[in-house]
Amino acid sequence: MNAPNDSSEAEFKRILEVSQLDLDYQSLQEMFKNLTELASSITGAELSLVNILDSYWQWSIAANGMDPVVMRRENSVCQYTIGEKDSLEVENFRDSDQFNVPLDDKYGYYFGVPLRTSEGNAIGALCIIDEVGHSLDKDQQKALKLIGAEIVEKLEGMKKMAEVNRRFHDMHAAQRELGYDLRGPVSGVLGLSKLAEDEEDVSVLKQYLNLSGQSSTELLDIISDILEKNNSEFLEYAKASITISELKAKLLALYGGLATSKNIDLNIELLPGNQQLKFSRQKITQISGNLVSNAINYAAEGSEVKVFIGLKNSGASDMAKLSVLVEDKTTFLKQEAVEDIMNASLQAKEGLVGEQSYGLGLKLVRHLVLEMGGQMDIDSKEETGTKFNVSIPRYI
């Protein structure tokens, strides 16, 4: 049982797929409730959990026999399960200093199966936990693996639906742009036809322009219908959007407890501007969440992490950019580390990843920001700490 290599290219691809799923960790309990209940029923275990592992944390998105929890990834048993091909069984995790599982002392038995996607990445694990002495026979283990496969199928189905919605949005955005591009010229032709109607000496031209005017009117009506239809459909797409004020609430809900566990004051401030302007939710919560998570993970205990969220180019809503600045005055990155984060490599240099340096989560942030046509800057000084600043274009 070996600890995963947190700096490898394979690990980067794994956490990238986790981010691409774009999961709302706090809203999936009901979706997977029946499957966790089934896992407990088949195995006779008191507890069953669906855990997703990102760069720093293990998120229980569904649980039976207990409430979903968040814990540091390095303290979990599932961090080893995702490195296994088939499954992992631990007769008593209390016997090992590797684990620090926040459960009653009576629990010690663990059996987990990796949640491996069609891309081959283990994004998390389905596990059952019970008292020491519990065990599973071959049929129970097989059933647990089938439940794990069903969980992966559901998660990948959610991802495909999100992609369909994104393509739908892009298609209608193109239609909207086409409509606005055509509306002006068509209106010009219509205006010209009106002028030509007053020219009594050019009867043939007048008849032609009159027909042209009728066609232009019909085309203009069609374009208006397209724009009106798209406006209503965009209201539907808004369900996949998020405002700045909603983003603040989401970050506090996800990471407030993690900050408290390290006695860190997580302070999120909204800058002046239109805080109800909607942005595409895809990747924005992952980007901002990874920045906040990274800051909490590496900040000194008892310190403060400041987050500033606002708009750039807020005067023109179509040109607006979301700006997220995360500041931690207790962390310092050497220039070599900053350069490594900002380069295109999917693998971190040895010696730069760790508690006193950084994790692949920052390289993931840069990757996602560039994918969205945004920009990321890092300012790190030993005297003043580190600031991460990203700006992301608005897509709605």
From TrEMBL:
The Histidine kinase domain, residue ranges: 177-396
Record carries keyword Phosphoprotein: yes
GO molecular function, a single term: phosphorelay sensor kinase activity
Alphabetized Gene3D superfamilies for the sequence: 3.30.450.40, Histidine kinase-like ATPase, C-terminal domain
Catalytic activity: ATP + protein L-histidine = ADP + protein N-phospho-L-histidine
PANTHER family to which the protein is assigned, alphabetical: HYBRID SIGNAL TRANSDUCTION HISTIDINE KINASE C, TWO-COMPONENT HISTIDINE KINASE
Name the UniProt record assigns to this protein: histidine kinase
Species this protein is from: Zunongwangia mangrovi
